[in-house]
Amino acid sequence: MKYALPYISYTQINTYLNCPHEFWLTYYSGDFTPISNKYTELGSLLHEIFEEQGRQLIEGKSMPEKEAIRIFNKKYFQIDKKYFSDKEDWLKMYKKGAEAIKNYFEAYRNSPPIFVERQFFGEIAEGLPPAKSFIDRIDGDPNDPSSWIITDYKTGASPKSKEYLKNDIQLGFYASQVFAEFGAYPKALQFFHPVPNKFQTAIHIGDGIYRFTNQREPVVEFSVSDTIMTIREVVKKITEEQDFHKVPDSFRCKLCSHYQSGACKPFDSSQLGWLNV
User: Fold this and answer.
1) How high is the pLDDT of residue 183?
2) N or C: which end of the chain has fewer CB atoms below 10 A?
């Protein structure tokens, strides 16, 4: 069995790590229809505004914060009300979005990035399918990738836990792509959480190893080599072992589109176990 997709991505690998069966249903079964919710709708809208503000700065223009709020108001009011339990729920989410824009402008009002939504595509290691990503924002010297600060926007209400930062491979995935294309590791990689106005930044300390700043001991570190090893293991499980077992989780499953559509019944004991195809 070959890897049936034309490239690998962080989302694909992370989906498999969370639940191999979800990966199968999403990418291999041909029966996937994304289901939106209030969180994905808000996240998409904020990403759109942040990207446009960054593009304007790159072009030497400036998007006033009032214009960003005007765009937000117009498009937020168009979100289907079915995603909200009541008017209070709708207003609560609106306030989070408005606060996120305020905090974003505090951080980046007059700071033009060198790239927004920069695509990376290519081989990150021998024997792996090509990797594809779109990185939200890159700052630094455009001619010196070792000076780059890679930023991914996270529009949830809280920063990521240490356990998440320890196990997640997104930032390592991005660093591997920069190194593969330019032969240099970026200076730093970070998550920016505009709702609580928090940065979680990992600094390159050498040899593709990154350490998070402003953490009490034990401080989380990750390495690009470990990230690539994890990707290799996942690709092997998909292509050689054909392991697509379910991982029932009372929280994650209820947010999964396949659970909501009825395609997967994770808590039905008769359907647990391994799916080999």
Assistant:
1) 98
2) C
Q: What is the pLDDT of residue 262?
A: 80
CA distance 74 to 8: 35
Instruction: State the amino acid at position 176 in one-letter form.
Output: S
Which structural domain range is residue 83 located in?
Answer: 38-108
Displacement of CA 259 from its chain's centroid (Å): 21
Alpha-carbon span 131 to 105, nearest angstrom: 32
Instruction: Say yes or no to pLDDT of 271 above 90.
Output: no
Terminal Cα-to-Cα distance of the chain (whole angstroms): 9
In single-letter form, the type of residue at position 153 comes to Y
Q: Is residue 261 part of a domain?
A: no
Residue in the structure block whose two tokens are 């402003």: 214
**Residue 48 clears pLDDT 50, i.e. is over it:** yes
Report, as an integer, the average pLDDT of 7-18: 96
The β-bridge partners of 121 are 132
Q: What is the three-class DSSP state of 231?
A: helix
Distances (CA, A) of 252 to 96, 114, 248, 255, 275: 22, 36, 8, 5, 20
Mark whether 173 and 212 lie in a shared domain.
yes
Residues 6+ apart with CB under 8 A from 90: 81, 84
Q: What is the mean pLDDT of the chain?
A: 93
